[in-house]
Design brief:
This protein is of the alpha+beta class. It is built from 5 helices and 4 strands; from the N terminus they run H-H-H-E-H-E-H-E-E. Helix 4 packs parallel to helix 5.
């Protein structure tokens, strides 16, 4: 092969060369990772959570002070539905707790529903809530 042809081939201007198809360039993983990045976040969460085979649980919590918020967050991030009864809290702390719970649900792509006076349901993204 002449020098000009070698340079043209090197620059991608020459004829096609034979490549070893058995070599794994790792592009498939990059493409899958890039596709995963552009999936809707709720779909990514559902795909991640479907891999876990634990049954769904509902946790009933009655926080007495705002410092109990991390407990609610821990259960909810573990994909457990949380029923939060804030009747035992002062109005100011109950408002703060509901604000925290709403932010938590929003940030984890879940839902928060009021089910009674000062009682709220925090549902993970993969849980369907129906009313009858």
């Amino acid at each position: 092969m002449g020098a000009v042809r070698k340079v043209a081939t090197y620059l991608g201007l020459g004829g096609e060369e034979q490549y070893d198809d058995s070599y794994d360039y790792g592009y498939e993983e990059e493409i899958e990772a890039e596709e995963e990045q552009w999936r809707p976040a709720s779909e990514r969460a559902a795909r991640r959570w479907r891999a876990v085979s634990e049954p769904s649980k509902i946790v009933m919590l009655t926080p007495r002070k705002y410092n109990d918020a991390p407990t609610i967050g821990r259960y909810f991030r573990e994909r457990q539905a949380v029923i939060m009864d804030v009747n035992e809290m002062s109005s100011a702390e109950a408002t703060r707790m509901v604000d925290f719970a709403a932010g938590l649900a929003y940030g984890c792509e879940g839902r928060i529903e009021r089910i009674a006076e000062k009682v709220f349901l925090l549902a993970p993204a993969d849980m369907e809530i129906t009313t009858g």
